[in-house]
Write a structure and sequence with these properties.
The protein is built from five helices and six strands. The strands form two sheets. The protein has a four-stranded parallel beta sheet, with helices on one face. A two-stranded antiparallel sheet has the order 3-4. Helix 1 links the parallel strand 1 and strand 2. Helix 1 packs across helix 4. The radius of gyration is 17 Å and the shape is globular.
């Protein structure tokens, strides 16, 4: 009978990873970030265990999208009042809140449960090239990873 391996709390190590979103495709970048947050890049990945790393994204305002997504992709929210549906295009969202664009894209690729809500807290997104996480010494993400 084979035993199932389940990582212990002390065996899990979290690293800080720096991702530069400059001229990156939104969807492809979001899948890389979601993979890092879930910990799927680690050899001892176990589903249902928080093994992922903390991810710092800089230059969020400089991402790219293909096709007509800048004008046709819409983000919706509702105030829970009659007629309270609000819509904002990707172009306007990038102008006002570029961090939210990446956060929404990554959130769509994470599990929508307690674990996903805890994982999204390990994602730090900044519109410009500066970030306050120098003390954690984030390692830059390799281009092929």
């Amino acid at each position: 009978m084979e035993k199932t391996y389940y990582p212990k709390e002390k065996e899990i190590s979290q690293e800080w990873i720096l991702v530069d979103a400059n001229d990156q495709n939104l969807g492809r970048l979001a899948t890389q970030i979601a993979r890092l947050l879930l910990g799927k890049h680690k050899p001892n990945f176990t589903p249902g265990v928080e093994m992922g790393d903390c991810v710092v994204v800089v230059n969020a305002e400089r991402i790219r999208v293909t096709g007509k997504k800048m004008t046709e992709k819409m983000y919706y929210r509702h105030s829970n009042y009659p007629g309270g549906l609000k819509a904002i295009s990707l172009r306007d969202m990038l102008a006002k809140h570029p961090e939210r664009v990446i956060r929404f894209a990554v959130w769509g690729m994470l599990p929508h449960n307690r674990m996903g809500r805890r994982l999204i807290k390990n994602l730090k997104i900044y519109a410009g090239p500066d970030h306050p996480h120098q003390a954690q010494k984030p390692k830059p993400l390799a281009k092929g990873a």
